Amino acid sequence: MSLTRSDFDQYMVPNYAPAAFVPVRGAGSRVWDQNDKEYIDLAGGIAVNSLGHCHPVLVNALTEQANKLWHVSNVFTNEPALALAKKLVEATFADKVFFCNSGAEANEAALKLARRAAIERFGEQKHQVLSTLNSFHGRTFFTVTVGGQPKYSDGFGPKPQGIEYFEYNNLDSLKALINDNTACVVVEPIQGEGGVLPADPAFLQGVRELCDKHNAFLIFDEVQTGMGRTGSLFAYQEYGVVPDILSSAKSLGGGFPIGAMLTTADIAKHLVAGTHGTTYGGNPLGCAVAGAVLDVINTPEVLAGVRAKHQQIKAGVEALNAKYGVFKEVRGMGLLMGCVLADQYKDRAKDVLNAAAAQGLMVLMAGTNVVRFAPSLVISDEEITTALARLDLALAAFVA
Ligand SMILES: *Cc1c(COP(=O)(O)O)cnc(C)c1O
């Protein structure tokens, strides 16, 4: 059977617009397409392939578990889930973990828990959810509505209620909305999809203080910023601001679908048996892989490597930019980086993406005006050097 990109248009729901080439295999930070053309991967499956493609430790964890036990449902617990929960608790502020299969589900659980705990403690009126404009929390109807981007949430009929929006990095705009009926405030420590925009430390600290003042839970959506991406295991550790509830996914599974919601024992106790659930959450295969991902990432060497690679890529991009003047800012933390296009090239991130692909380089967009990198946390120096050489050719073609 010969399969091509045009089969996507024939057989698949048209909610995506995938690239013209079809990747067929990967190793480390290299990927090959159907024509055996090689790409360096700075996209990382959108901050998912935290250890690159087919990392031997992950392949081993997955195949070992595949020969042992795939699925038992939550009618029974299982050893990989117990081991992963224990590791996450030991590495973070959290006492308790809930597993699911994606970032949206982790946020859905976080929001439901926050509302449930707030209502049980203070009464039915305490259900207001406050979120930042231009954020991204997933595509379930609750999470996409909380994201505050009408282009994603409009057109599906009546929306979940009780959600209001404030401006990112603007404490006064939160102050104007927060009150004693606020159940929770949801923040990405770095707005990922919204343009790789890091929070000001004083803003996050201020959000924490306002939450405390009004007995509102602080939820950090670390689906994109977590699992070593910023150079700390989670971005909250980098900022020194501790949330009440944290969501993780993407890099947690290194490419195997898994999500997790972390919280304290005091809050977790509001989700008693039967109040929430998922068939696959805590699946042995996913948890075995994520356990191996965590073991590899949560070491001083790998986390220090993330900071060093940030510097290396940033210096390289800035040197290229001195030549081409394409970007006005390179921002982000660790290996979540955004290159903001200069006014002259405004909203042409897609053209940079296509120019990069032509040269054998996979990059991402974050909105229409930011070129985003979210590569493997263990991308090698050689892979970075090759990526920058290809970016050089791509930018030359882009400005020509
Ligand atoms: C990707 C992302 C999500 C959604 O995760 P899915 O696995 O696609 O459901 C939620 N929040 C943030 C910050 C994300 O980057």
Could you explain how this protein is built, in words?
This protein has 400 residues and is an alpha/beta fold. It has 2 domains: 150 residues, Aspartate Aminotransferase, domain 1 (Alpha-Beta Complex); 229 residues, Type I PLP-dependent aspartate aminotransferase-like (Major domain) (Aspartate Aminotransferase, domain 2, 3-Layer(aba) Sandwich). Helices cover 40% and strands 18% of the residues. It is built from 15 helices and 17 strands. Strands 4-12-11-10-7-5-6 form a 7-stranded mixed beta sheet, sandwiched between helices. α3 runs antiparallel to α12, α13 packs parallel to α15 and α14 crosses α15. The longest helix is centred in the last third of the chain and has 25 residues. The radius of gyration is 21 Å and the shape is globular. It starts with a helix and ends with a helix. Pyridoxal-5'-phosphate binds next to α5. Homodimer. It is found in: Cytoplasm. Its cofactor is pyridoxal 5'-phosphate. Keywords: Amino-acid biosynthesis, Aminotransferase, Arginine biosynthesis, Cytoplasm, Pyridoxal phosphate, Transferase. Pathway: Amine and polyamine biosynthesis; ectoine biosynthesis; L-ectoine from L-aspartate 4-semialdehyde: step 1/3; Amino-acid biosynthesis; L-arginine biosynthesis; N(2)-acetyl-L-ornithine from L-glutamate: step 4/4.
